[in-house]
Amino acid sequence: MYKLPVPTDKEPADAGTLCDDGDKVDIICESADLKDIPEEAGSSWSLRTMLQGEELKILLRLLPIWVTSIVMSSAYTQMNTTFIQQGNAMNVSILSVKVPAASMGSFEVVCVLTWVLLYSKAIVPALRESGFSFGGSGEPTQLQRMGAGLLLMALAMAISALVEMKRLGSAARGEEITIAWQIPQYFFLAGAEVFCYIAQLEFFYAEAPETMKSTCTSLALLTIALGSFLSSSIYAIVAAFTATGGSAGWISDNLNQGHLDYFFWAMAAMCTLNFFVYTAFAKNYKLKNQDSVLMT
């Protein structure tokens, strides 16, 4: 280390010390014992440990909300699996126009746009007129919107079961119903997506610790992937318990021999139970901005 010239009216600097003849003096110690560290340094380490503990508490509070989103995503994946299987067993014509079952997912995108407009132009104004309690933003809170999405998903599964019951009744008479009967279930599934997934991203980003916002946002998106895995597990469990003794099971290659309606009713019941579990956690959830410790 180099030493700068020291004015004669000041004492010579010690080795390893860099001095400046101005009002500010910077001291660089080449070797310092822990005993030379002021007591304030220990308190700063204690503060950092305390902040890390608070961040862990925030993550643990987010965990139950995150788990309920996985269950919701397992129902959402039915749009790409059992909904298509159900549509293939129908008359794929709407007003003399052939609409492949797999293309109904495109209609769900249109429904998403419709729900976005309905939310801002009709739903929120109607709730305001009815005296509904909002958060400080003047619209339903993120937790309220997520709860509405979970409830709409249960409704979508129930409608799917009713449509399948009608399809089975028509098949027993040797008739086919049009695939247009699937439009309501896609519509309410799109509503669940708008209310739950958008609010979920906002919620996880807002509630995440400052140093983990990207990670928590990724966890919100991870629920869709884990929901697909959960859905596959549900299929395996349903097949193990229903496709026995020569029975075709609930989800059969030939839906006319199966009971896909039972599966949809089971999914509706699971989504309803998930909604009540979520409601219990959401009511007791303490928002980050209500914490006594300021996270910076």
UniProtKB/TrEMBL annotation:
SUPFAM superfamilies: MFS general substrate transporter
Localization annotation: Membrane
InterPro entries, alphabetized: MFS_trans_sf, POT_fam
Annotated membrane topology: Multi-pass membrane protein
GO MF: transmembrane transporter activity
Transmembrane segments: 58-79, 146-163, 218-242, 262-281
Record key words, sorted: Membrane, Transmembrane, Transmembrane helix
Keyword Transmembrane helix belongs to the record: yes
GO cellular component, one term: membrane
Principal subcellular localization: membrane
Recorded family membership: Belongs to the major facilitator superfamily. Proton-dependent oligopeptide transporter (POT/PTR) (TC 2.A.17) family.
Protein name per its UniProtKB record: Uncharacterized protein
Source organism (scientific name): Panicum virgatum (Blackwell switchgrass)
Biological classification of the source: Eukaryota, Viridiplantae, Streptophyta, Embryophyta, Tracheophyta
